[in-house]
């Protein structure tokens, strides 16, 4: 039973143990994509925790007892469960495995057992794509040291039981004991700029377009919607920036090396309105996005960052990629009929496209 | 802020000093007062893409013949379902176009006829095109054969004894008529394939835009564009000659002399003679090439101005000696075309879409070589011969004292020239002095004054009320005019420091602008400058070796300028409407050929 597994060591058979996010990072690592180095605390570890602590039964009973019509009770029970998880000891074997992997990670990064890492939850449920869990579990940034890592692994597990998550599973009729959680522990990126890239245009489904949102600092500002990001539309084939909409990005989240925390700070006025990516960086994001889309053979929704600590050319990092769901599911329904040959020509003459706007 | 209509031509007064300008052009090309209501109901746009300058009276022949022949194909030969011809006028010296649509209720009936007529051409495209080449070459040969010689003192004894019975003034008059007819004929051929070629292109273009709403126009152009294009041959010939000069060790002669001295010097050595043989071989047909667009008598053709190709030859030779590679990367261009095509095809959702893509692309690629190449055969080669023959005719009158400059003939309408020929033959017949020498020089001066006055005012972008939506396919295809571009003309330019046009050739550069108003000023361009002009001609190709980017007022994605800029890998923004007046020579400008924006960073 593997309790932890480095991205680079995971085989496709292991992906089921890593949750959606973890499996994606492992598979991108294997494809030589620039994923920050890291490991997963597997679902085995989570199962061992539930089993060894005896909390598994307790938790499922508590969830089952929730009267959903009473929001206050849902919140109260949710808080109890999370407290239970956070306060419990990890099984020794699991704790040891995580500590060992963390130390190995520090060593690989030439850090003295104090490598700042991001600890991210990566949930999984039988027969369910990861996307349906998007954004529902927590991510902790700038976690430093073995004990802190252990603590945040528990916090991630606990995040499975927020009111919102419990409610969601109930709505989606997901069976509670089929839901498992893996936790990603990954070298922290000191993001100068970060954001998301979609390998299609989210407004019209155009698959020849890559849409990028980017803002200063860590990607959380973009994902959470705290800032209006710079928006770029790039033609995937020609690699032309078709549209660049530069915004005023007033705040940024940045890791603070002294306090070992993520700070939210005002962006100085002159930088706030500057593009957060250079033209060649926009193209680099697109180049990666194209490779990732090809790797997964379907449109992707990608989180990326540009690491301020790494030299240009090596500073682009991929944080996450998941299948795009909105347009990819819509498409099959509306295949237009094409007029061919002379008939098509007559159609184009009578109603030239440029006149349709 | 923005108006909803352009001014009426009836309110657009001619500049001071141009009084009498209406006499310089045919009556059917003018706006007449008693037709005000009818003419004001039409939307006219200025075609400064093809005719950017004020017309000399004779030069109106090109707009008459070309646009009339375009119309005949739409209206009478193909029965293009939604489109008849294009109405055209000259106002204040510039030409304005008004495409004529077909009433919606009549469109359906035209479809079956269009299918049969155009279908036949698409089905037999290459055979018919071979035939086209033969027809055009025959016209060129017929023009070349026409002789314009002064009348002899007496009729030859052979003619007398042969009982010919007519005198040579008849031949002169016939040859002039024949020359005009041959020009008319070749203008017809110009449109035999063009409208259909654009229609097939438009069909593929529409499919791409529907499948990929954000696809850059440029991407569609790149998929269709040919690799070996006749229009680039003249430039290629010069490159070959530059290489040969180095191979034969005569590059110093080329670099150190002007064209005449160099050619005489080369004739004195064996290697030089070998090079000269290649130069002569390249001349016909490839020096039948103009740095204008062939639409004006003032366009300079390489064959008549050897200093032009020789200048380019010097540039290429110099670059070769510096170790630069001057070859067109044809293999890379072909590979890139295939990469782009494959990548878009792979993004299509299903087999049906892929089949449609391939079918429409196949047709577009079949027809597109014509769209790209016809300019060489008509505007460059045929019209080059035509203008030269007109000068041969003019030389007769110049010698007889009718005027002092061969160019003066173009200050007369074509039917006036028939009168001048008659005056010449008439006086010769009677045995009295010609009237022309005592009448025409003053008239030429008067007309020069009128034209100079007209040229002081730029053309208006359009007249009257535009349609709410531009649906006329030829307006969109041939002129690149869309609802948006008309709106932007109407909106005017509040902010003159930034301009928006078509992203015609990708890339971003910053540099000093050089505003060029005519082909003759091209030699002012300094290495590394950005060419800003109303419209470029593809034959400006050799200057693209030294400029950084191009910005034009007029032209779409498939305009000549756009095609050549892409070929040369230069950023280009076309169709800005007003760059050549908004930007001044010496301004520091930033050209974004990927987004279509031009920014004046710092005024000179």
Question: Could you explain the architecture of this structure?
Answer:
The complex is a heterodimer of chains A (357) and B (604). In chain A, the strands form 3 sheets. Chain A has a 6-stranded antiparallel sheet with strand order 9-8-7-6-12-13. The longest helix of chain A is centred in the C-terminal third of the chain and has 18 residues, at 279-296. Chain A has 2 domains: 4-187, Dna Ligase, domain 1 (2-Layer Sandwich), CATH 3.30.1490; 191-332, 2-Layer Sandwich (D-amino Acid Aminotransferase, Chain A, domain 1), CATH 3.30.470. Chain A has helices spanning 19-30, 43-53, 55-64, 71-87, 92-108, 146-159, 163-171, 220-223, 269-272, 279-296, 326-330, 341-350, and strands spanning 4-6, 38-41, 117-125, 139-143, 179-187, 191-198, 209-216, 230-235, 241-245, 251-256, 261-266, 300-307, 316-323. In chain A, helix 3 (55-64) packs antiparallel against helix 4, helix 4 (71-87) packs antiparallel against helix 6 and helix 5 packs across helix 6 (146-159). Chain A is an alpha+beta fold and 357 residues long. Chain A is built from 12 helices and 13 strands. The model of chain A has no long low-confidence stretch (mean pLDDT 87). Chain B is an alpha+beta fold and 604 residues long. In chain B, 48% of the residues are buried. Chain B has 4 domains: 9-119 and 458-477, no CATH class; 126-191 and 378-454; 230-321, no CATH class; 496-602, Glucose Oxidase, domain 1 (3-Layer(bba) Sandwich), CATH 3.50.30. In chain B, the strands form 2 sheets. Chain B has an 8-stranded mixed sheet with strand order 5-12-11-7-8-9-10-6. Chain B has a 4-stranded antiparallel sheet with strand order 2-3-1-4. The interface between A and B is large, with 39 and 57 residues.
